[in-house]
Amino acid sequence: MTEIVYQLRNLAKEYAGRRVLDIDFLDIYRGEVLAIVGPSGSGKSTLLQLLNFLESPCQGTITFNGEVYHSARLPSLEVRRRVTTVFQRPLLLNRTVWQNVFYGLALRNSPEREQRARQALNQVGMLDAAHQGALSLSGGEGQRVSLARAIALQPQVLLLDEPTANLDPYNIRKIEDIIKDLNRDQQVTMVVVTHNIFQARRLAQRVAFLMEGKLIEVASNPAFFESPQDARTAAFVAGDMVY
Ligand SMILES: Nc1ncnc2c1ncn2[C@@H]1O[C@H](COP(=O)(O)OP(=O)(O)OP(=O)(O)O)[C@@H](O)[C@H]1O
Ligand SMILES: [Mg+2]
After folding, report:
1. Does any ligand 1 atom lie closer than 6 A to the CB of residue 43?
2. How far apart are CA 206 and CA 230, in angstroms?
3. Which of 213, 205, 212 minimizes the C-alpha distance to 27?
4. Is residue 15 within 6 Å of ligand 1 at its C-beta?
5. Beta bridge partner(s), residue 25
6. Structural domains for the chain
7. Single pTM value for the model
8. What is the pLDDT of residues 177-187, one digit of tens each?
9. Using CA atoms, how far apart are residues 19 and 21, in angstroms rounded to an integer?
10. CA 162 to CA 111: how far, in whole Å?
């Protein structure tokens, strides 16, 4: 039986009285890559903020590793640390590449810090740049260091918000390969938000389509792309949806 990491039930999030996310039902399986696609403003980043417990829902529950959480019962720091996010616009510290990766490990007093930092930088192909100032990196390099910083923490769940936005084909390929390796070799459960349906198709085992805060369709890959059940999904997949 497939193990379920997250169970979202009747989950809603409002900002200033406006409902931006309203998900009746979503399960996320252990070890899968789930892609979240949808137009700008459809609630993709908000969904990640709920999955990493940085925001609290105004309604409904998130069961994580079998424990039920809601607005009046949020997980402990230890539980939240099992989830790591690479944000849509990741901020690097004005330090070296090495210090950027090492910092989170030091903060957590993680064992084998040097080894983990070295391994993570190696995994993203940035070990040679360890002593370079992080703010002098190119966009793609910076994105890879952000990913290394997350990988080094060895999370159970990795949430990636537009991990290749504005990158060139070389860096897109590189980051997609890292994501695939992590999933295959370390069975990290991943939720990847992407505007790019081709990327979703390359990376994900399942795809969820969000529109105006609602889940329109969740299906496995390639069924999501080849036989979408909802007309709106079909329009989005065909590139006919203006957003
Ligand atoms: N902290 C906040 N305060 C108020 N409104 C917010 C906040 N965060 C998000 N919103 C609103 O919630 C809606 C969903 O935003 P969200 O960032 O989740 O969209 P998205 O799907 O990630 O969009 P994009 O593809 O442009 O990143 C938007 O209308 C946004 O303005
Ligand atoms: Mg977003």
Report:
1. yes
2. 16
3. 205
4. yes
5. 9
6. 1-82+192-243 (3.40.50.300)
7. 0.96
8. 999 999 999 99
9. 6
10. 30
